[in-house]
Amino acid sequence: MTIRSLREMTREGNSSSLTIEAQVEKILLKETSSGKPFYELVLRDATGTLSLRAWSEKPSFLACQKLAKGEFVEITGNFTQNSFGLDATTWSVQTLDEEKINFLLEGSLEEQRTHQADYELLLHSIDSLQDPRLQMLCQLFLKQYGKRFRRAAAARSNHHARRGGLLEHTARMMRSLLALHPVYPQLHRDLLITGILFHDSGKLWETCPLAQGFEITPHLRGELLGHLSIGIELVNALWRELPKETWSHLLPADEEVRLHLLHLIASHHGLLEYGSPILPKTPEAMVLHLLDNLDARFEMFQEAYAQKPSSDMGLFEWSRPLGVAPVVPLREAEFKKTEE
Length: 340
What we know:
Structural class: alpha+beta
Strand content: 15-25%
Order of helices and strands: HEEEHEEHHHHHHHH
Low-confidence stretches: none
Number of helices: 10
Number of domains: 2
Radius of gyration: 23 Å
Shape: globular
Oligomer: single chain
Distance between the termini: 44 Å
Number of strands: 5
Mean pLDDT: 90
Largest sheet: 5 strands, antiparallel
């Protein structure tokens, strides 16, 4: 049971006694306005975060005294959703052994299969590249940073803000491109495949959990430079390692290819106010920005729909990243069976 599936199961207000496994992200000792002590326990797994309170008269309060940030735990409780979100009135906690920790970090068998399929899609797309410079650049990137790439998040919040989220986001963008390219065959397929792989590569140092954790911990490189600058720096560093002398006969020239790839990374946020130092100036840059925004915003809707509706008409709470209060989407048509 993941935090996301727990939230979905209780979104209609139903109460369920369930067990989840997660990592302690924060454990804070606080006081109520009347001076009554309680612990606020913030948990994180690969799908999201959950906050629980342990009151002083509950057994969970004593258990929290023994917990530390970064520990992996099992929480069993009677979960429900109310106006304050997902909560449990009564719950217990115990630490996990090493075997369960490793299983939790790897994800369920379904998640492992999904992530492996996503990664293989990227490898297959790279194998299909016709430009040997771009192909070797992608291969070199995954050879050196593949493990880090597979566990990185795509953001700290808003979309794919979880361990493995960058891989999911990148693979969905790649699938969209492969479906779109036959409609617009004029697009430079090799450049876009490479741009999709590298567009958020700087997040390996901006939003990447530790090897043994789910928390998206700050990294000095990411804090000082940001992922666009890091992505440009990374491409330049890897480009210097390529045996470019063997491709002197190729056109367009190496420098032109490199600059167009850097432009995709620099402009993929689409607008100056969104952090791009330059606006998209090529069809490929425009398409990369649109694919990135499409997948990010679709994920934001899914995150909103995982919450409890705020009204009977299917209206949800205001979503800050979307800038709207989402409404339940239209269902597919269903045909009623008629009696003969």
